[in-house]
Amino acid sequence: MRLFTAITFEDQIKDSLWEAMEKLSFNVIKGSFTAKDNLHLTLNFIGETKKIELVKEAMEEAVFAANIKSFNLSIGGFGRFSRRDGDICFIGVKREENLLGIQKELTNRLKSAGFDLENREYKPHITLARRVRFAGGFRDDELASLIVNLSQKVQKISLMKSEHINGRLTYTEIFHVCLP
């Protein structure tokens, strides 16, 4: 099973992110947009594993050890990572102490449980589209000015399964741990 841990969003946040994606699409010649139902903030990408119980235990231990209560997540600002096959376009997420704390604790617990995770700095973002090629004259600042800053209370972390169903990439929550 292909797994990752994440913060999921309320429908209102997904609607606002979808509006930003529609604005972005007017400037795109080519790209693969994230499905509205799949919008999330990744905490850790785990990959293929059958050790689901170990992941669940690591999540529970991380929430307990981090001792982080529910917190507000601030979302806003457009960005992109340049890639040879096209850019990854995203909405930024404020690097907030509670977010970084739970992500770091979760990373440590998953690594201790034997999972091989990436060793790069965590850069919280919400992916809108991949392999994007822009029309001439596109300016990041023009799109950034159209994106409203958003906020959501984070009350849980989720274990997500990634699979193709009827030819469509689908993310499904299979477990979650509530923040105290």
From TrEMBL:
Enzyme Commission numbers on file: 3.1.4.58
A Pfam family recorded for this sequence: 2_5_RNA_ligase2
Classification via PANTHER family: RNA 2',3'-CYCLIC PHOSPHODIESTERASE
Organism classification: Bacteria, Bacillati, Bacillota, Clostridia, Lachnospirales
Protein's recorded name: RNA 2',3'-cyclic phosphodiesterase
Reactions mediated catalytically: a 3'-end 2',3'-cyclophospho-ribonucleotide-RNA + H2O = a 3'-end 2'-phospho-ribonucleotide-RNA + H(+)
Signal peptide (from-to): none
Short motif HXTX 1, span: 40-43
Entry keyword annotation includes Cell division: no
This protein's record includes keyword Methyltransferase: no
Organism: Herbinix luporum
Motif window: HXTX 2: 125-128
Enzyme class: hydrolase
InterPro entries per the UniProt record, alphabetical: Cyclic_Pdiesterase, RNA_CPDase
Family, per entry: Belongs to the 2H phosphoesterase superfamily. ThpR family.
Function of the protein: Hydrolyzes RNA 2',3'-cyclic phosphodiester to an RNA 2'-phosphomonoester.
